Amino acid sequence: MEALELVAGFGAKGDRHAGKDPDRAVLVAGLPSYEKAKGVGIQLPFGALGENLLLDLDPHNLPPGTRLRIGEALLEFSYVCTVCSSLSQFDLRLPKLLYGGRGLYARVLEGGLVRVGDPVRILVTAE
């Protein structure tokens, strides 16, 4: 997918989870999660973690409350995504390996298009 449309207070257009909980509107994962899996021999296709957005940074280094501008959208991290057993379909070691490191949920404060390659600007880092 080359672009994703995010809707304020709703989530990613076309996502089956959108509109259910504004605090869980978007799941943001980072490349380090995929690299960690690869490091133990687990080859995951992008999207395997259920993420809406995959960033070339570790979102776990940014606490809940952090705001990011990505493309036209403004996001605010709400909380860490728990690892669910559905990840076992790829490898039984995966839920334990990525415990606390799957990604962060984010609220969509301002909607808009996010395109592959859009810069990520950290606007506010929560204390």
From TrEMBL:
GO terms for molecular function: catalytic activity; molybdenum ion binding; pyridoxal phosphate binding. This is MOSC domain-containing protein. Coiled coil: none annotated. It comes from Thermus tengchongensis. SUPFAM superfamilies: PK beta-barrel domain-like (SSF50800). InterPro entries: MoCF_Sase_C (IPR005302), MOSC_domain (IPR052716), Pyrv_Knase-like_insert_dom_sf (IPR011037). Residues 1-123 form the MOSC domain.
